[in-house]
Amino acid sequence: MTLEEEIGNRRTFAIISHPDAGKTTLTEKLLLFGGAIQLAGEVKARGERRRARSDWMKVEQERGISVASSVMTYDWQGSTFNLLDTPGHEDFSEDTYRVLTAVDSAVMVLDAAKGIEAQTYKLFEVCRLRDMPVVTFINKMDREALDAFDLLDEIEQKLALDVTPATWPIGMGRDFKGCYDLINDRLILMQAADKNIRSEGIALKGLDDPRLNEYLPQDRVDSLREQVEMVRGLCKPFDRQAYLEGHLTPVFFGSASTASGCVICCRACGILHRHRERRRLWSARSIQKSRSYRGLCLKFRRIWTKHRDRMAFVRLVSGRFKRGMKLKHVRTGKTLSVHNAQLFLAQDRELAEAAVAGDIIGIPNHGGYKIGDTLTEGEEIRFTGIPSFAPELMQRVRPVDPMRAKHLARALEQLAEEGAASVFKPYLGADWIVGVVGSLQFDVLADRIRTEFNIPVRFEPTELYTARWVEATDPKVLKQFMDANRAALAEDHTGQPVYLARNHWHLNKGQDDWPDLKFLKTKQEVA
Ligand code: G4P
Fold it and tell me: How far is the CA of 23 from the centre of ligand 1 (A)?
């Protein structure tokens, strides 16, 4: 297979949803049908210990939430899928945002009874920023649901997105019989008996096919025909280009827990998610030839805590990676031979002998990589677009043993490099300020600093309201500002000045008094 063909086979995507909409259940079905797991239920333990199998950290297990995103690779009908798991808990949305910058498309899962919920909306907005193609999966049709037309209308209105139903539900709740696949003219009946059976559906010659009556009662057939006629009149036909540009979403109805409709969703992913077609997005940032290897470091997680090693997750943006390859770490200019990169299967990791654009590899390391770092075969290019968000909550962190302040500083720096939190060193005073997006992150950080760095710490509340990165075109103005506001300033782990506002008024005053400065809520990590 040529490099182009291999790359064409890759689909790198994420599933976005509001907690409880069914993301884990759908993931499980995708992995099951992709042969990556044997039985539904392996991804998720039942009851109290509910959590995705991709959760590795103790704190995630204890709390039953998925904290950090990970990667799962599976094959489906000749294509290789890289599914980047995103944490469902809203406190960890920053990590999710970062993952969304590294995928080529997203599947948006909605609960049919609830429509667009707050978190879905937020995540969709991130996809929109990048014109990302989004496939919609309306889940839980086997429960009482909103009217299918109303759901389509809500997507159209709230997300300002054209919709094209790719399947149409037959009934809902207890009366849910399955879906009609409008693209391939197949009837997909709900498999009540075995949740793990993959049903390809029954091929028909269209909605007028008299064989429909063999499977559905007459009144069902009539209302299906009527509804489909109506929806076809109301919605735009599927336009591949509009989908790829993020203006139109194909909508699939189904029930992940009963596996109904998942197959068509999987198939849709197979047809629609292509690295190659999104390449313009990556290559727009790098004008040079694209056959050589380039990778972008998008996240970290800690592995083998005893040795304090880390895994840098690197998204291949172009070319092919081969084991042992010499790669240039553009930020530091160092060259490294990568022998121990890993690929991630649903439950295991394996040594990466080769990988192509679209794949995610993990590079174990002892530090030295940062979010947004670029690895190339020698080119001096830098990918941008991995955002950091101004934290919404800030606390002071102190070691329980004051003698360990220096060790804590190093630990915080590493955590900031991983993107686990924002870390600020005020220009005045000896304490560190840690900023996060959601309060649960403080617990996770305290746990990590204690277990991974052996430093028990205390987090203490501060009066701070928010932080803004400060930038100026004129260095003189920046210096004047810094001299006048030293007590409200800190630097982040990269040394960039940050304005720590005590309240909304304080923030506004800073902005009003210094109109030539930019107070940035989002900072793009630049390698
Ligand atoms: P999330 O990852 O988006 O947070 O959602 P998850 O898949 O964990 O699903 C949330 C709940 O919704 C689970 O029930 C799950 O079984 C249920 N669910 C998911 N898909 C469907 C569906 O198509 N139909 C129905 N009826 N339910 C669905 P739970 O009670 O919270 O957990 P459990 O009883 O499954 O352990």
Answer: 8
